[in-house]
Amino acid sequence: MSAWPVNDREIDCLAYWISTLKISKRTPTSIGRELRGENYKSLRARYGWYATEYQKAPTYHYTFPFRTDKFDPFDVDQALKMVHFYDYQSCEHGGAWEKSQSYRWMKRLEDALINMGSDWQREGLTWGAA
Predict the structure, then answer these.
(1) Residue 105 near residue 23 (C-beta atoms within 8 A)
(2) How far apart (Å, rounded) are the C-alpha atoms in residues 95 and 103?
(3) CA-to-CA distance for 4 and 39, rounded, in angstroms?
(4) Which end is more exposed in the chain, N or C (fewer Cβ atoms within 10 Å of the end residue's Cβ)?
């Protein structure tokens, strides 16, 4: 598998839904920082050079100002596809992923969105927010 840095719009979508559905009591900014950190752990595990490059980057300096220019994060179908996208990009660090808070949030969010009738295979949805 491969991994990709999840961008702010993608984190915004997930943080919004985790917060809105009360999956976590933390703020969207705190949720986003946790999600970003978990994705970076996956990148470091998958690609050794990320360890050096991302130590220089503002890894945990995420703030939640909702960027919605490329996709509709309020669409439950798009949100479920974003859960699958994030899971794919953040699972590269073996058993640590399944023990992480981010993993538990993704599973709870996936269940909640499915229960809301989400169809992540609907035509026109994007893989990520790019």
Answers:
(1) yes
(2) 11
(3) 8
(4) N
